[in-house]
Amino acid sequence: MKAPRRAHPRERSSSGLDVARIRKDFPILERTIRGKPLVYINNAATTQKPRAVIDAVSRYYAHYNSNVHRGLDELTEQATEAFETARAKAQSFIGAADEREVVFVRGTTEAINLVAQSFVRPRMREGDEILITEMEHHSNIVPWQLVCEQTGARLRVLPFDERGELVLEQLDQLLTPRTRFLALAHVSNALGTVNPVGQIVDAARAAGVPVLVDGAQAAPHLRVDVRELGCDFYAFSGHKTYGPTGIGVLYGRAELLDAMPPYHGGGEMIRSVTFERTTYHDIPYKFEAGTPNTAGAIGLGAAIDYLAGIDAAALQAHEEEVLAYATEKVSEVPGVRVTGTAKEKVSIVSFVMEGVHAHDVGTILDREGVAARAGHHCAQPVMQHFGVPATTRASFGLYNTRQEVDRLIEGLHRVHEIFG
């Protein structure tokens, strides 16, 4: 492996964010790919991890690895304290009212399935309706289709327009007396659109409809306050928020979680078990059966601490700057069409190149050391809307720079040269 590239002096953003210093916190950014410095712009799929997160996970395994809540020894007490401290950090991160409203799950996908099966399914009858949007990730489509198959309910869809913005004029028509639940993404993973969640939640609440918000793409970029949003459930994933894989958070209003039956059965989620009857633990433990991902939770807590140490306004301004620059430069490449031009966007530029499949674009970019995403992004209805099989997606994080965008553009010109 070649020596790491020295930070370019222009890597101090005009926002005032010291991106060169931040980049030094991420060991993987020192890598080379095929002899070229890595440009990692696949953050909507997963973010890279700062050393603080890597070290927190390593310390747990090296110094106090133990099963939480299940012993009186020193290791167990240390692990339990770190695990529950991470829960408190997650509570603060999303503005929940109470630590009991934070359930640790494997990620956004499990969180949505938990709500689908434990909260929504028991409340559905044949002919009832669940409302989602056309821009959802598969994880916010398939669980609701399963509930519809199980109950005879109907799935309805709020469309988006050619800019990638929801057609809110149709919301009142789709919120009918049969609507029992609404689920939507805070930010589209395929388009980067920031949806007007507060406005939609207000409309749903006026109709007496509970709301789940998929925050997987929002949590790394936006300030999230679940009480301000007014939603009933909110989910996000650690690995998209500079934390480990296999850990995520489901927020649910305490009174709703209290009334929900367990999703999984096993150890930890019980108070007592006999062959005649089992009584369940209080929330959130009622939904955390089995040995948890303790290392993941601790790593997520470290990621939240890391983000808290960065000036939020400077970070947002920097990401907006990189997104604007990338959108401009990508749009100038011959034969390229950007999909998703919403007025309110974060961190994602998706595009198609005339006459070239996205997989070919991704392959050539990889040869240039640029890690982007090519495919349907687990959002096939979005691809169908635009009449394409796939797009190439460049998605940016706090460590990306304008110079890395230039590397992307060089790669796209190389694609253009090869395919003519």
Explain briefly what this protein structure is:
By secondary structure, the chain is α/β, with parallel strands linked by helices. The chain contains 14 helices and 17 strands. It has a seven-stranded mixed sheet, with helices on both faces. Strands 13-14-17-16 form a four-stranded antiparallel sheet, covered by helices on one side.
Query: Helix- and strand-based class?
Result: alpha/beta
The amount of helix comes to 25-40%
Fraction in beta strands: 15-25%
What do we call the CATH homologous superfamily of the largest domain? Type I PLP-dependent aspartate aminotransferase-like (Major domain)
Query: Quaternary state, please?
Result: single chain
The CATH class name of the largest domain reads: Alpha Beta
Helix segment tally: 14
The neighbouring-strand order within the major sheet is: 4-10-9-8-7-5-6
CATH architecture of the largest domain: 3-Layer(aba) Sandwich
Q: Provide the low-confidence segments as ranges.
A: 1-10
Q: Average pLDDT across residues?
A: 95
What is the fold named in CATH at topology level of the largest domain?
Aspartate Aminotransferase, domain 2
Shape: globular
Please tell me how large the radius of gyration is: 22 Å
Number of beta strands: 17
Q: Note the gap between the termini.
A: 33 Å
Total individual domains? 2
Sheet of most strands: 7 strands, mixed
